[in-house]
UniProtKB/TrEMBL annotation:
Domain of life: Eukaryota
Protein name per its UniProtKB record: Reverse transcriptase Ty1/copia-type domain-containing protein
Entry-linked InterPro entries: DNA/RNA_pol_sf, RVT_2
Alphabetical GO biological process terms: DNA biosynthetic process
Range of residues in the leader sequence: none
Residue ranges of every copy of the Reverse transcriptase Ty1/copia-type domain listed in the record: 212-432
Stretches for region Disordered: 1-63
Length: 625
């Protein structure tokens, strides 16, 4: 009977719960249930009148937590309810409260959070949307499968989608929908903190924006604006649980095709060189963390307007003066700000690693800085600290700092009387092998399931991170396991678990002894290759480079073990390619060392275990011979 798709039950009249009764007449699809008047919890009662579809539940007034009390009255739809987090709709429990009475406790299950999608034409694969059909008024929702038109063309709003209503998949123009918005999927959350702690964290974040003069308030005159969202996290520190809130712009809503986004970070080799120099010159290694780094970046050169978060929305917009978290070029703006500050202090950038900075006085090296976003690793003498580090601390808001024993980007660095060590022992202890049942363990040749593949790849990735930073001894094993990604079997999974057990049991460290004068140091490069030991005729190549002084002490600087770039036809060819890669890496490292010191030429010594290669390099023959 005159039932529109989307109503409570197809056997009912349009908007009526029961066609034989007047109870609940004039109910609009999408209301609390089909038995209610539009926005009314109970047709026989005035309780909860004027409730709009999509409100907290059908028993409340528009935006009110509970119509039987004043708590939460006059709260805008999708805004905080009884001091809840932005945009949340809570099932059973009030967000941040244990019993709905405002006491601190758990919050659970954040249901479909509907937010403005912002600028048309910049939806991404996997995002969910909803909107109203302009003809029928039906609610249409679905998932973005991919772009169907060029981003700059007339069909920029066209996408391949899958609709929830009937499962239809095809080409769709999202610009035809009214009240188009993004729908975030259900997120299960169990966090223990009070509403007051979250509110304080949010207020603190906004105050940080104000202190750094990040924005100015301007009238809303229809400017194209980017929406924002809150990221609330908890961290455990020495003094207990700390709640942090960060306001993030939805940068994907902005057209970024013409923006430069690159932002360098220091290489692993530069960190090791800094540690080697610090050990040899008896400098202490130090780390400094910059607080709210992106908000201290360079001034923005384009117009960007933000929609303020609901708690601070007075109808105006925020015009940005600086880049903020979420914008695609925020990291670059921060890097350029740091680079400018260091240049003003006569600290020079290394041309081979743009995140390694060098400070010399009278041609003599007196300090080094490695930059990894907002984390600085530095070493130098007292003059360097006074003239550079102390001045940087005046220009930037510093969070934490540490010396001699600390963790820097996941690496634990410790200073001793005879040298410095780097390890990832704590990270290794957190590795968890993939669970394999007894029955599954018997199926050694069986291909991995999708869930097993996901766990396999994640664990190999963790091991590979250790192999490239502090564990050259597992570099080959992780490379071999990586090669098997697409066709991994239970056999590879068992090998992976054995490697994890080995890494956890062997607490190894990189040791950087105190070297003698760098003027006499040389680079020693060892290379090796295994011919045709990989699938499809591939060969494995490995190398390691040490910085060595005239007394024989060595510091490990560079290593790798990977598939050679070309398929070769002989052991000699494989060994030759490995040697070429090693020599190229050594020349690169020598170039950095020459910029750090006054040495004009760094000696490089390459060592191989292949006699044919050695003879080929040193035996000279004429064309006739």
């Amino acid at each position: 009977k005159n039932v529109e798709p989307g109503s409570f039950d197809g056997s009912k009249e349009l908007g009526s719960f029961d066609g034989s009764s007047g109870f609940g007449k004039n109910v609009e699809p999408g209301s609390f249930d089909g038995s209610k008047e539009l926005g009314s919890f109970d047709g026989s009662s005035s309780f909860g009148k004027n409730v709009e579809p999509g409100s907290f539940d059908g028993s409340r007034e528009l935006g009110s937590f509970d119509s039987s009390r004043s708590l939460g009255k006059n709260v805008d739809l999708f805004e905080n309810r009884s001091r809840v987090d932005v945009g949340s709709k809570i099932s059973k429990l009030d967000l941040g409260t244990k019993d709905g009475n405002g006491t601190s406790g758990k919050y659970v299950k954040q249901q479909n959070d509907t937010t403005c999608a912002g600028k048309m034409g910049y939806w991404k694969k996997g995002q969910r949307f909803q909107g109203l059909d302009p003809v029928t008024g039906m609610l249409i929702s679905g998932k973005i499968l991919g772009r169907a038109g060029k981003v700059t063309g007339v069909n920029k709003d066209c996408y391949n989608v899958q609709l929830d209503n009937d499962g239809w998949t095809g080409w769709f123009n999202l610009a035809t929908l009214r009240e188009l918005s993004e729908v975030n999927e259900n997120i299960e959350m169990i966090i223990l903190f009070s509403n007051d702690a979250v509110s304080l964290a949010k207020n603190k974040e906004i105050q940080t924006w104000i202190d750094n003069k990040v924005f100015e308030v301007v009238p809303n005159e229809g400017q194209r604006a980017i929406s924002v969202r809150w990221i609330v996290t908890e961290k455990t520190k020495d003094n207990g649980l700390v709640i942090k809130a960060r306001l993030v712009a939805r940068g994907f809503e902005e057209d970024t095709t013409s923006l430069r986004k690159d932002s360098p970070t220091c290489s692993k080799e530069s960190v090791r060189l800094l540690v080697a120099f610090a050990s040899s010159k008896q400098w202490a290694c130090n780390t400094v963390d910059v607080k709210s780094a992106y908000l201290q970046g360079d001034k923005i050169e384009r117009e960007i307007f933000l929609k303020p978060p609901p708690e601070f929305n007075d109808g105006n917009l925020w015009k940005l003066k600086k880049t903020v978290y979420g914008l695609c070029d925020a990291a670059r703006a921060w890097y350029m700000r740091v680079k400018s500050a260091l240049n003003s202090l006569s600290v020079k950038m290394c041309s081979l690693d743009n995140s390694l900075f060098i400070w010399k006085r009278n041609g003599k090296l007196e300090g080094l800085i490695c930059i990894y976003v907002d984390d600085f690793l530095w070493a130098g003498n007292a003059t360097f600290k006074k003239c550079v580090i102390d001045e940087l601390q005046k220009q930037f808001l510093i969070g934490s700092s540490a010396s001699e024993s600390f963790t820097y980007v996941g690496l634990r660095i410790k200073s001793f009387s005879d040298g410095i060590t780097i390890d990832q022992t704590q990270y290794a202890s957190s590795l968890v092998p993939v669970t394999i049942s007894s029955a599954r363990n018997m199926q050694r040749e069986s291909q991995l399931s999708e869930s097993e593949k996901t766990a396999y790849r994640a664990l190999v990735g963790q091991l590979n991170w250790m192999a490239t930073h502090t564990r050259p001894d597992i570099a080959y094993d992780t490379c071999e396991l990586s090669v098997a990604f697409s066709k991994a079997t239970v056999t590879e999974l068992v090998r992976l678990n054995k490697l994890v057990k080995r890494v956890k049991n062997e607490s190894l460290q990189l040791f950087f002894p105190r070297l003698h004068s760098f003027e006499t140091c040389s680079l020693e490069c060892y290379t090796d290759a295994a011919f045709a030991n990989l699938p499809n005729g591939g060969s494995q190549g490995g190398l390691i480079i040490f910085l060595k002084d005239d007394s024989g002490k060595k510091c490990p600087i560079f290593w790798q073990s990977r598939r050679l770039k070309r398929v070769v036809n002989s052991t000699l060819a494989a060994e030759t390619m490995a040697l070429i890669e090693g020599a190229e890496a050594a020349v690169y490292m020598a170039g950095i060392i020459k910029q750090l010191t006054a040495v004009k030429d760094v000696k490089i010594r390459c060592l191989v275990d292949n006699k044919s290669l050695h003879e080929s390099l040193f035996v000279i023959k004429t064309s006739r011979e």
